[in-house]
Amino acid sequence: MLEHITSLKNPKVTTWRSLKDRKGRRETGCFLVEGRKMVEEALVSAFPVEAVLVDDARLGEFSLPVSIPAYSMPAHVLAAVCDTKTPQGIAAVVRMAEVQLHGPRLVALDGVQDPGNVGTIIRTADAAGFDGVILSTQCADVFSPKVLRATMGSVFRMGIRVTDDLPALLAEMVRSGASVLSSQLDGEPFYRRRPLNDRFVLVIGSEGNGVTNEVKAVATHRVKLPMRGGAESLNAAVAAGIMMYELTRDMDF
After folding, report:
1. Which is it for strands 105-110 and 159-163: parallel, antiparallel or unpaired?
2. Which neighbouring-strand residues pair with 41?
3. Which of 65, 232, 233, 235 has the smallest number of CB atoms closer than 10 Å to its CB?
């Protein structure tokens, strides 16, 4: 059933507007996605969709699910709920869910704080054939609007895990037979790395400080990309993309 909302003071609108902030997302356990593509991705994912929000004037553009509450509203109300300056006419309120990690190829983010980098790495991991992403709690919030937009829907297809003790989790994986590659400026040449086990985790460090010493201590491989020009380092998402595609180069797609 479609419910019509007209006021910015409506309690539901107040709750939806709070999802722009990390505090609001934590308190409600929900996040907001915007645009047709992201809403469609959410609807077929393992994440429960709690509500679909639509611009009154654009109702005819979208096919709304019959089993999920839907709300129509004037453009100015939807704009107040959304994070983008020019909303695309549809958004969805989605409940957070930790999709289980699966498969042998994972990437771990150790304090990557730029939302664009976090989202781009998740999207690239999906494209390169990785199976999941681990994030330390020092990373940008994976459910923030900027991270979600940068993933272009890949957040709904990847196993995602947030941990408050990344070194301990990686150490456990090493004990179970996985290789852990720490990307660091003082590592060994990436293209001459020692062989990896079938299961591996590629660790990307923060933009300013790189991989933490605690993570370096548990890594089985410490690697660096060649810097043949004058640049001293690469953007975190660019470096991650180069290494992820190289590590999956021999996969049978």
Report:
1. unpaired
2. none
3. 232
